[in-house]
From TrEMBL:
Protein name: Uncharacterized protein
Species for this entry: Micrococcoides hystricis
Lineage of source species: Bacteria, Bacillati, Actinomycetota, Actinomycetes, Micrococcales
Coiled coil region boundaries: 279-306
The keyword Coiled coil is annotated on this UniProt entry: yes
Keyword annotations of the record: Coiled coil
Length: 306
């Protein structure tokens, strides 16, 4: 990996450290300072990892792509994707990317293609599995479980309080999707419908508070079934004074290696109770919908009878 350096003269993508000082990100006709990916030793719950940044140059803006008289280096911005690589044992690695945007990840000469090339250079049988993730949630029922916990027992653990479910997506049996925003609870008929029809729920926008010693950390994230997440930067509060880049790195590592695994553990610890409770939740959603539409029908009939 260290030998595959980014090269401006050829607009060749490559690898370096995640150091932000002088990175030139977002600049045209620029390349990052020379550096190499770095191995960082384990720190409590954060495992030993290789931290690397894949630098590449964006495509030319519209209007410049067919202009042969312009040096492409003068119009293409330097961009990057960070990757955290940890060992899972048995020859397996876990990859945590700084973006979920597939068009960036899956480019022909992009970050995943480069990683696959590096892996195959040592073992032709190695490859990246894009459909399995060691970060993934236990199962998709965890989203309904979180909604129920928010209603009945928002204090998930001594140090985690589920403050709000800001939004959730659902997918029915014909793969049609729906998005609920601006607060989700069991008073919303469209959410009750998704529960009653046993739609697949997720991703989910959640707000929660985490106690660390005497300090409180507040988070808002979009949580995906594969364990990936999107940080709502303006709604994150941490007591530490960190610049933007350090803040995002620290928050991402805490979510991936400390907090989201806790959600899995809490869900698994509640599994025996949840098997029974889940059925009750679905049945009550059906009953609530029946009562609501019966009442609406009565109101409509009275209006028609006038």
């Amino acid at each position: 990996m260290a030998e595959k350096k980014p090269l401006l003269s050829e607009l060749r993508a490559g690898w370096a450290s995640i150091e932000n000082e002088g990175s030139n990100l977002g600049q045209v006709n620029a390349e990052p300072p020379e550096s190499v990916p770095e191995i960082v030793e384990a720190d409590l719950e954060i495992p030993r990892m290789l931290r690397a940044r894949f630098y590449y140059w964006d495509a030319p803006p519209a209007g410049f792509r067919e202009n042969q008289d312009i040096d492409p280096r003068t119009v293409r911005k330097l961009n990057a994707i960070d990757v955290m690589i940890t060992s899972q044992g048995s020859g397996k690695l876990a990859l945590l990317f700084s973006t979920r945007t597939r068009t960036y990840l899956n480019r022909k000469m992009g970050v995943i293609a480069s990683l696959n090339s590096i892996l195959k250079s040592t073992d032709a049988n190695q490859a990246i599995d894009r459909y399995e993730s060691p970060f993934r949630l236990t199962n998709e029922e965890i989203f309904l479980w979180l909604a129920v916990q928010h209603r009945d027992k928002p204090q998930l653990a001594n140090d985690i309080f589920l403050e709000k479910i800001e939004g959730i997506s659902s997918r029915d049996r014909t793969s049609r999707t729906a998005d609920l925003r601006y607060g989700v609870d069991f008073d919303r008929s469209n959410f009750l419908t998704a529960v009653a029809e046993k739609d697949t729920l997720g991703p989910m926008d959640i707000c929660f508070i985490r106690d660390v010693g005497t300090e409180k950390f507040s988070y808002e994230v979009k949580l995906h079934f594969d364990g990936g997440f999107e940080i709502k930067r303006n709604n994150i509060l941490v007591p530490e004074e960190l610049n933007h880049n350090d803040f995002m790195l620290t928050t991402s590592l805490d979510l991936a290696y400390k907090i989201i695994p806790r959600f899995n553990i809490l869900y698994q610890n509640d599994a025996a109770k949840w098997r029974t409770q889940r059925v009750d939740v679905i049945e009550k959603a059906m009953s609530a919908l029946e009562a609501r539409y019966k009442s609406l029908r009565q109101v409509l009939q009275k209006q028609l009878d006038k």
